[in-house]
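RESIDUES AND SHAPES:
===
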Amino acid sequence: MCMPPKFRLPTMWLKISGPEFELDLALPGPILQSILPLLNIYYLERIEETALKKGLSTQAIWRRLWDELMKTRPSSLESVTCWRAKFMEAFFSHVLRGTIDVSSDRRLCDQRFSPLLHSSRHVRQLTICNMLQGATELVAEPNRRVLETLASSLHTLKFRHLLFSDVAAQQSLRQLLHQLIHHGAVNQVSLYSWPVPESALFILILTMSAGFWQPGPGGPPCRLCGEASRGRAPSRDEGSLLLGSRRPRRDAAERCAAALMASRRKSEAKQTARAVPPTRVTRRSTQESLTAGGTDPKRELHPPATSHEAPGTKRPPSAPATTSSASASSSTSSSKRAPASSAPQPKPLKRFKRAAGKKGTRTRQGSGAESEDLYDFVFIVAGEKEDGEEMEIGEVACGALDGSDPSCLGLPALEASQRFRSISTLELFTVPLSTEAALTLCHLLSSWVSLESLTLSYNGLGSNIFRLLDSLRALSAQAGCRLRALHLSDLFSPLPILELTRAIVRALPLLRVLSIRVDHPSQRDNPAVPGNAGPPSHIIGDEEIPENCLEQLEMGFPRGAQPAPLLCSVLKASGSLQQLSLDSTTFASPQDFGLVLQTLKEYNLALKRLSFHDMNLADCQSEVLFLLQNLTLQEITFSFCRLFEKRPAQFLPEMVAAMKGNSTLKGLRLPGNRLGNAGLLALADVFSEDSSSSLCQLDISSNCIKPDGLLEFAKRLERWGRGAFGHLRLFQNWLDQDAVTAREAIRRLRATCHVVSDSWDSSQAFADYVSTM
């Protein structure tokens, strides 16, 4: 134990016997309190229980260690309940990544303890970043006990900013996920900020999270799986799925190109009189057919040199087409590819145009050269992609593959895998999903009965949203389906948001929490635009929505008026709804907004919390009063809704009168409504002696309130003597204009309520606002 050179603990104070360590309980509390700061983190952590028995808290010591060694400040939104656990968890991550030197501080070093093993039991959340740093170290034999401890303590596994990784790192990750998920306690996997996902790594994480497992080729067998898994060889399809091969599998763009070429070749074959001699259909001939027929060889097989091919490179000619498109679309997964190190990332393909020139015969030079021709051709054509045609190709290619066996698409053969424990929460934040990734996710979701919460945030689903809905419908039909929370947000959606909401509620009638947001309307993805394929007929419909179990519904709308009847149909079917949040919602008229509120009053009798954000309610004052008179709501939020933009002198007294007569409303949030000093003083009347209001939470942030108005508000509360009424939030008001008056006002308010405020520079904020006008 590292101690200062001039200080040694008397041996009678400590009882050390092998792994056991405790303080002498006979010591007085003051002596124990003086000893604790002198211990290193290993002994300090081990005597925690003894210190608690003596009525001593070590939280201040752990907090000081955090400030001095971690040198980061926790988020203001984070409530730290145990600084010991927080420090040890962060310490484990730093040691694992090599970002902290334990020998640099005496409080961290002790040759009798292993930093990873000693802190592993406190780790509830582990983050793996970049090129999978730490995965190889954790599965190494010297760290076996560390991994065993993590398997029982770790609950959340996060991946951030992943980059391309080699085969060895993926094999280590495979073993790590198998230990932590299949034989451990991890129940949540989250992926963050992966702009260019590596298909191999992404599909590996998905399949392992879903509970499917096969040891990689050449990898050691799992000692926890028993003899059954050791003697079982991986199937061909599953080995391809779990990416044990060192060759990367074909990307979705390549398969889409092959399917499209096969479809086009079939249509051209019907129009030409030249007969094609029949040939035996094999994997090789099927592959060759995708690179031949109906195109100009100079255009397709001799394009300009790209970044991965030097100018002047000669290509061998290809073989003639000899098979049907049906065989082509089902056998493309067997084609050969260049090594991963030289393969560029594919881009979505544009529509293929008919090449000018004559169709020439080609001599066959070998399957290796032909597969390279197809590979280069796919990515050269991909470089000419136009954004406006991306979705159309995806629909054509995917449509050609509909109804195929999953193994034909490179998807998992689920029945061929060993199924283990799977996670219950999956979160994908800013991870663009290619067609291949989306198909894999949907295929896994259809039988992922242990999944309880799914978050898909800004994944660029596009038309793949229809496949997602089909898989969710299939999952809902499974016995034992536990999915109860779905969070879905994206920039665009091929369906209007209300149609999408109706489709989700129909597909998942047992869902409890639904959060859905679409930022921008998209004409390209809008089925109503001529030329765009509409959604499948079973996705949308005019039939009524069956009764569902929704308890919480959050919707964020793009700009544009929303049809109130569609929203009302969802609300009518959600009789158990307790919380509703509408963000950026626009209705054609105040009457439509009133229709929604009337529906809430008649059909949603269990509704307790109602929130409106970024809505123009200046012309809906009568509807607002209608809400404030509702005796079932306990919390109402009007955030940046322009409530007092019109007729404030008449509307404020009416609003206060409605609130004074409402005895069930507990919380009112009015941030960003330009309440001002006059409005704040009017609201003070809600707490007068003749009021029956039971309001205990008030949020008046961002309301242009000045210090003198706040001081007068505090004096009125004191005069009426209502006592403590709960929480008062004052963020981002103009309290910096007179700091002395503001401090006096807050001091008076704290005698009646809990005040939460901040130091906000209103002048700088106003300058920033003007600069953006």
In short: The radius of gyration is 32 Å. Confidence is low (pLDDT under 50) at residues 1-25, 227-265, 271-412, 524-532.
